[in-house]
């Protein structure tokens, strides 16, 4: 396991929770640089989790470019990319661009627990799974309706599970 984290507090938390595991390595590097430096892994098998900070206005563009570049270097890799949904149109435009990007299998998984809010309080998020395990769609189809019921604010939960490209 390789974790790329620039923020000292987060790196300390990772080290505290995973530091005793000899299989875990925590590197003080920007995740976007880490994606270029460590993909593909030597083993040629694995999972890449991308969790951008979404603090800058161009994060969707950076995520799209980073995934496209990493996928071009490691076509068979499995990638999970998390994103917040603060603006439905922006998230949908990102999904459309990813669908047109030439990546063979992309499963979109989204969960909303409330109406999208202007006050900054996160009410919905998504995960793109590139080359997902073949059971993921079925498992999320069972899990997400139940998760929505548990997390819903004022009964406003819903989810989306669809293929942007590939099976389906």
Number of strands: 7
Average pLDDT, rounded to a whole number, is 92
Largest β-sheet summary: 5 strands, mixed
Widest sheet: strand order? 3-4-6-5-7
What is the succession of H and E elements? EHEHEHEHEEHE
Structure write-up:
The protein has 168 residues and is of the alpha/beta class. The protein folds into two domains: 1-38, no CATH class; 46-165, Rossmann fold. The protein has five helices and seven strands, in the order βαβαβαβαββαβ. The chain has helices spanning 8-18, 31-38, 59-73, 88-99, 136-151, and strands at 2-4, 25-27, 47-50, 78-84, 106-112, 124-130, 158-165. The strands form two sheets. Strands 3-4-6-5-7 form a five-stranded mixed sheet, sandwiched between helices. It has a two-stranded parallel ribbon with strand order 1-2. The chain starts with a strand and ends with a strand. The model has no long low-confidence stretch (mean pLDDT 92).
